[in-house]
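From the pipeline queue, job 12 of 40. The input is one protein chain; the requested action is below.

Action: predict structure.
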Amino acid sequence: MNRKTLPLVYSLAIPIGVGALVAIALAPFGETPLEGVTLLVKGAFGSWRRVSETLVKTSPLLFTGLAVALAFRCGAFNIGAEGQFLV
């Protein structure tokens, strides 16, 4: 494979692999992967209250990721992101 097709292979293989893992994890409970994903989406975005809770809980993670990405982009190595997140 050349360098141009490798990202395409990864972008197709990773979702298929994750879907297979979800199917394997839900199989003992008698649920299909579609039902599991539907419940996950309804749990996170089922009402305005759930949407706001999802945003409240994901905002610190998003900002921590942005801080680390900015540091890496500038050529610095930020090892304090976990501590900053906890504070």
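Job complete. The mean pLDDT is 86.
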